[in-house]
């Protein structure tokens, strides 16, 4: 029978061997002070140092530790996905392994979930100890995500978050989507999303594993998730509408150009050959693109209709 726990703490890690003993001891102390039963799920994302050996040693002193080790580096989203699958706690936390997130925030965030009714509580690193080269791009990225999603969070990418258990069991984190878990939760129907200002600590060991390429990936993933949220089950609504509009625009322009030529011929007016007019080629291009977009939407509908989860919906409650 599955053991019921107050909290699960999912810790994705990559080459963080130095910080792990201090992090686990800190989580254990916070749990003991607040009389919380807990588990720490450490997901080693293909570390090249001795992180996994440290996890194995810590297991002998802290039985609440559980470990998952990847054969190679798959990324943070994959680590979170596997950690969420394994989590058993009533409230599930995610926390980075670099000691920049404070476990002291756990009790207050747990109360927000259980007592204030939030489905998800995201940390907000209001005062950050990162270089300005990371802070300003992050501010712009968060502003864009906030406007595009309608979720009023200041820090989408904060590693410290708390979830009601059913939330993490209802979403699928893949690719680089760990930045957009609040959007995934909203898409799944969990709209009670809160925020808490949390302590952000300067990095004590090692160095950041994320470079500037995460900004490019982040925006591409944002476009993907917004498309899936609005048109994932009905791609024809987007591609079919755009295709029809372009086809009508291009076809109408072509007819107008030809009709204008015929009218000028009938009245012996000077005229240009249709093929000498750049507008004619733009109109033909619009027709071709319109057909392609319409076919893309049609094929998307066919694929969606035959997918295994076409009628997979989130059922929160039932009454017989």
CATH topology of the largest domain: Spore Coat Polysaccharide Biosynthesis Protein SpsA, Chain A
**Outline type:** elongated
Largest sheet: 7 strands, mixed
- Count up the domains: 2
Write down the secondary-structure element order. EHEHEHEHEHEHHEHHH
Tell me which CATH architecture of the largest domain applies here.
Alpha-Beta Complex
Q: How much strand content do the residues show?
A: 5-15%
**What is the radius of gyration computed over CA atoms, rounded to a whole number of angstroms?**
26 Å
Helix tally? 10
| Lateral arrangement of strands in the main beta sheet | 3-2-1-4-6-5-7
Can you give the mean pLDDT? 84
The strand count comes to 7
Which helices and strands occur, and which strands form pairs?
Layout: E1 5-13, H1 20-33, E2 38-44, H2 51-61, E3 65-69, H3 76-86, E4 89-94, H4 106-114, E5 120-124, H5 132-149, E6 161-164, H6 165-168, H7 181-187, E7 193-197, H8 213-231, H9 235-266, H10 278-305
Parallel strand pairs: 1-2, 1-4, 2-3, 5-7
Antiparallel strand pairs: 4-6, 5-6
Helix pairs in contact: 5-8, 9-10
């Amino acid at each position: 029978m599955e053991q019921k726990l107050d909290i699960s703490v999912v810790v994705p890690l990559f080459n963080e061997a130095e910080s792990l003993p201090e992090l686990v001891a800190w989580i254990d102390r916070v749990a003991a002070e607040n009389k919380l039963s807990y588990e720490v799920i450490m997901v080693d994302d293909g570390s090249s140092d001795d992180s996994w050996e440290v996890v194995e040693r810590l297991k002998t002193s802290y039985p609440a530790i559980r470990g998952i080790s990847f054969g190679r580096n798959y990324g943070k989203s994959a680590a979170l996905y596997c950690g969420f699958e394994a989590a058993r706690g009533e409230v599930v936390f995610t926390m980075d392994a670099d000691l920049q997130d404070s476990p002291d925030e756990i009790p207050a965030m747990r109360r927000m979930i259980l007592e204030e009714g939030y489905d998800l509580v995201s940390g907000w690193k209001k005062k950050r100890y990162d270089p300005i080269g990371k802070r300003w791009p992050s501010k712009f990225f968060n502003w864009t995500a906030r406007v595009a999603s309608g979720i009023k969070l200041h820090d989408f990418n904060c590693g410290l978050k708390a979830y009601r258990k059913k939330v993490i069991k209802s979403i699928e984190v893949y690719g680089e989507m760990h930045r957009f878990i609040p959007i995934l939760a909203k898409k799944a129907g969990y709209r009670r999303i809160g925020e808490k200002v949390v302590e952000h600590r300067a990095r004590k060991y090692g160095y950041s594993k994320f470079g500037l390429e995460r900004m490019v990936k982040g925006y591409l993933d944002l476009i993907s998730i917004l498309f899936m949220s609005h048109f994932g089950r009905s791609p024809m609504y987007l591609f079919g509408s755009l295709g029809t509009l372009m086809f009508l625009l291009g076809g109408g322009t072509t007819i107008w150009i030809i009709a204008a030529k015929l009218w000028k011929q009938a009245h012996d007016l000077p005229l240009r050959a249709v093929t000498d007019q750049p507008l004619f080629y733009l109109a033909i291009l619009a027709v071709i693109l319109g057909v392609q977009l319409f076919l893309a939407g049609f094929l998307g509908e066919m694929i969606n209709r035959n997918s295994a989860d076409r009628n997979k919906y989130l059922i929160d409650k039932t009454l017989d």
